[in-house]
Amino acid sequence: MSVGNHLIDMDHRLLICKINLVECALQSPGEEAAHLRLALDELEQYTVEHFDREERIQLAIDYTSYGDHKYLHQGLVKRLQEIKQGILGIEDRERLVEESSGIVELLRDWLLVHVLKEDMKMRPFLQKYPRHFAPQGL
Questions:
Q1: What is the pLDDT of residues 111-127, one digit of tens each?
Q2: d(Cα 51, Cα 70) in Å, to the nearest integer?
Q3: Assigned CATH topology for domain 6-126
């Protein structure tokens, strides 16, 4: 799943970890709902930070599909917010646990499909730069 840039690749790994935290929170019905909200908030916040970082790298490498990619990011953030609201809207903890595997699958697909389908398109552009390339300010 490597796109060839250390920052982007590490972000992708951390996003998977954040999704795993959501899964843990979903599977702990005895825990407070605050844990689930915190895990979802962290996932959303880190997603926004990652997209910003990725877009700044795209601009620095003159990525020709920057505009389209940014548009996809905006749609993904909106979809993540919808998923989050849907999860937080389920008040019955037993139902939440029952649906947890489907929710986690949706989150993983949401991330993996984007990385494998869209982010990999950056790889040829990134190969012209060192693996640890980062524009100034990152």
A1: 888 888 999 999 999 99
A2: 8
A3: Four Helix Bundle (Hemerythrin (Met), subunit A) (1.20.120)
Q: Which residues contact 73 (CB under 8 A, 6 or more apart)?
A: 51, 54, 55
Closest CA to 80 of 54, 57, 103, 56: 103
With 0-12 / 13-18 / 19 or more C-beta atoms within 10 angstroms meaning exposed / middle / buried, residue 100 is buried
Q: How far apart are CA 16 and CA 114, in angstroms?
A: 13
Terminal alpha carbon distance of the chain: 22
Return the pLDDT at 84. 86
What pLDDT does residue 80 have? 87
Q: Is the pTM of this model over 0.70?
A: yes
Residue that has been written with the tokens 């930070």 in this structure: 49
